[in-house]
Write a structure and sequence with these properties.
This protein has 383 residues and is an alpha+beta fold. The chain has two domains: 4-169 and 298-382, Zn peptidases (Aminopeptidase, 3-Layer(aba) Sandwich), CATH 3.40.630.10; 170-283, 2-Layer Sandwich (Alpha-Beta Plaits), CATH 3.30.70. It is built from nine helices and 21 strands. It has helices at residues 4-15, 25-37, 100-115, 140-149, 194-206, 255-263, 306-317, 333-336, 364-382, and strands spanning 42-45, 51-56, 59-69, 90-91, 94-96, 123-131, 153-156, 164-168, 170-179, 212-213, 217-218, 220-229, 240-249, 273-277, 279-283, 289-293, 295-296, 299-300, 324-327, 344-346, 361-363. The strands form six sheets. Strands 1-2-6-3-7-20 form a six-stranded mixed beta sheet, with helices on both faces. It starts with a helix and ends with a helix.
Length: 383
């Protein structure tokens, strides 16, 4: 039986706890306590800070992992919120606060929806993964969870407006460096200006013809920073220029192909250019340091995949009129589906547009519907 009042209270509690990436210790403690109180068979916090709860069925069978991340983006200073972003207030039948939509509401719905499963009827086990660090490194923490629990199926709880997602964009961080030759700025012709070279590189990148997916949208190159060296440049022509691009990926794109699209441009042949995927290094609240290449692949399941069709039928069976959709952003499915090839779907309350905004909120009716949906998906796999 789903206790909707307790579900709402739990969601409010975890929204009230700030949990930036690498600072999730307090919210992890609250989640672990809730899982234990709801009688998950095994609950632990692993060495990287993920909270994992396992519900064991009466008979052997597959493992389905429900994943939601515990970290949120911050609250920008000077931007007014109508309510305190960590108030967890409920007004006009919505839960307000940072993380309500992305994605503490989904996490609360998973914990309560899965705990409501009848273990005596289950074949296999359901795992709820409250994973860390997703906002900075998609999939690396979920990989740690799956190494401990196994996974035959994965459900990602990112916002989908209660639609069933069977694919999503990936993300890469691309670093480009031009190397010139320094000279005194009174004689610029004696040197080679790395910034001017980079301007040509940027023009070439912006001119690239990129593919588009009917639901994920276009692949994207978005320039996010530019730095010259030396800086400040006191009477010297810069010999180094570095830029970073956020590259949004479509299914089938590889790091090699993304970099080759830049390197093979003929107009850049005489420029000394280094193009590579960036390396990310972040430390979790437990002190574990994640170091990984920042290439998180896109993924796509077939519309007729049995996990997709079975989950869709399960949602319809509990009155959720879900259709098929795809994420336009990157999620932890970059690992489960994009790297590990595990059958994966997405399903969650709120919309993509509700994430990372001021006055973030989640409708309570959608929170409760998500919990019913997670339980239904679990039953469809494990009974």
């Amino acid at each position: 039986m789903l206790d909707t009042d307790r579900l709402t209270t739990f969601a409010r509690d975890i929204v009230r706890i700030p949990s930036l990436s690498g600072e999730e210790a307090q919210v992890a403690g609250r989640i672990e306590a809730e899982m234990k109180a709801l009688a998950f068979d095994n609950v632990w916090t692993d060495d990287v800070g993920n909270v994992i709860g396992v519900l064991e069925g009466a008979q052997p069978g597959p493992t389905i992992v429900f994943d939601a991340h515990t970290d949120t983006v911050g609250v920008s200073p000077g931007v007014p919120w109508a309510l305190d972003p960590y108030s967890g207030r409920v007004t006009q039948d919505s839960l307000h606060g940072r993380g309500a939509a992305d994605m503490k509401g989904a996490l609360a719905a998973m914990v309560h929806g899965i705990s409501a499963l009848d273990k005596a009827e289950l074949r296999g086990k359901a795992v709820v993964s409250a994973s860390v660090m997703e906002e900075v490194l998609e999939g690396v923490a979920l990989e740690k969870v799956i190494a401990q629990t196994g996974a035959d199926f994965v459900v990602i709880g990112e916002a989908s407006n209660l639609q069933l997602v069977r694919g999503g964009r990936g993300r890469a961080e691309i670093h480009l460096t031009t190397t010139g030759r320094p000279s005194h700025s009174s004689t610029p012709q004696m040197g080679r200006n790395a910034v001017l070279d980079m301007m040509q590189v940027i023009a070439a990148v912006e001119d690239l013809a990129l593919d588009e997916h009917p639901q994920m949208g276009p692949a994207i190159f978005a320039l996010t920073d530019i730095i010259s060296d030396p800086y400040p440049g006191h009477s010297v022509i810069p010999s180094i220029c570095r830029v970073t691009y956020d590259r949004r990926l479509l299914p089938g794109e590889s790091a090699a192909n993304v970099l080759a699209d830049i390197r093979r441009r003929p107009e850049l042949a005489d420029i000394k250019l280094d193009a590579r995927v960036g390396l990310g290094e972040y430390t979790s609240y437990t002190g574990h340091t994640f170091t990984t290449e920042k290439f998180f692949p896109a993924w796509l399941a077939d519309d007729n995949d049995p996990f997709v069709t079975g989950s869709l039928a399960a949602l319809h069976g509990v009155g959720i009129q879900a259709g098929l959709n795809a994420y336009r952003f990157c999620t932890n499915a970059a690992f489960s589906a994009g790297v590990a090839g595990i059958p994966t779907i997405g399903f969650g309350p709120a919309t993509e547009a509700d994430a990372h905004i001021i006055n973030e909120k989640l409708k309570l009716e959608d929170l409760i519907a998500a919990a019913r949906g997670y339980r239904a998906i679990g039953e469809s796999i494990l009974t």
